[in-house]
Specification:
282 residues; 3-stranded mixed sheet; 11 helices; 12% strand
């Protein structure tokens, strides 16, 4: 999923994703009125599609909820997660990868192993509201010791279908998206994560059918290196090699200068702190 505000970093991701993350087909979903702009800057191996084509009825319901909670500024952030789930549902292949458009791979990324099992990057994000929502939504314990909030999230398509069936059986007379909307506090900046939720369901349902891998991920690429629009794909690959990085994120909120440096130091300190204490208490 992408929009014009991330065009600078998408220009990099578009070129390097097809090089370092192997797939039979690549798609980017963008707002309908931005399709022509994206076609001009997107690698020809990637098909540009309309985000709106994925909306099966959740857009209007979600809009009502965020407006009611006076949180309209986060509407787009929440909406793209529903788009991603629907894209997984519609995917005709045996396996699919969700890749964050502002995360640029700098070397080959293993997504499935020789047994065709998904390989998830080990991440340490621990955002309590995600798990509080999942307690209501899934009713499953947190059995994993890692986060699934990661740049590339692989999933077998039969798991996607089983997840939807599980959710709709648990929330009778509700669709999967109605159930998410019912159980999410949209007054929060970040009250739901599609990958953390899917990953938790997978960890419970198929504990021996996936593996993890350690990757080096720089989340503050702009404040540490430069703005994405000022970098070339070759220079990003060189940065990855120089600093031993597999993935570099260039997020719009990550600013350069004094404020950017402060963000970087705060995040660095948080990353050095133990994050999984009491993680399995539920």
């Amino acid at each position: 999923m992408c929009s014009k505000s991330h065009m600078g970093v998408w220009r990099l991701t578009s070129e390097l994703l097809t090089r370092f993350v192997k797939a039979d087909e690549y798609f980017v979903y963008v707002p309908q009125n931005e399709i022509d702009d994206f076609r001009r800057v997107t690698n020809s191996s990637i098909t540009v599609r309309s985000q709106e084509s994925l909306d099966v009825g959740f857009g209007k319901l979600l809009l009502e909820e965020v407006k009611e909670k006076s949180n309209y500024a986060r509407f787009g952030w929440y909406l793209q997660q529903f788009y991603k789930i629907q894209a997984l549902i519609e995917s005709p292949t045996s396996s699919t990868i969700i890749w964050d458009a502002d995360c640029v791979p700098t070397r080959n990324i293993q997504i499935f192993n020789e047994k065709n099992q998904p390989v998830y990057m080990r991440a340490t994000e621990n955002h309590p509201p995600y798990f509080e929502m999942m307690e209501r939504f899934l009713g499953l314990p947190i059995v994993q010791n890692q986060s699934f909030v990661i740049p590339g999230f692989p999933i077998l398509n039969r798991w996607t279908k089983e997840f939807v069936e599980f959710v709709e059986d648990r929330h009778r007379q509700s669709t999967w998206f109605e159930a998410i909307i019912q159980d999410t506090d949209f007054g929060l900046q970040s009250g739901f994560s599609e990958t953390e939720t899917l990953g938790t369901w997978i960890a419970n349902s198929y504990p021996d059918s996936w593996t993890s891998i350690d990757l080096n991920w720089e989340r503050l690429g702009q404040s540490r290196f430069n703005y994405a629009k000022r970098l070339s794909p070759a220079s990003v690959v060189a940065l990855g090699e120089k600093h031993n990085l597999d993935i570099i994120s260039f997020e719009n909120w990550d600013l350069r200068g004094m404020r950017g440096r402060l963000n970087y130091l705060i995040t660095l300190r948080q990353n050095l702190m133990p994050k999984w204490i009491n993680f399995n208490h539920r």
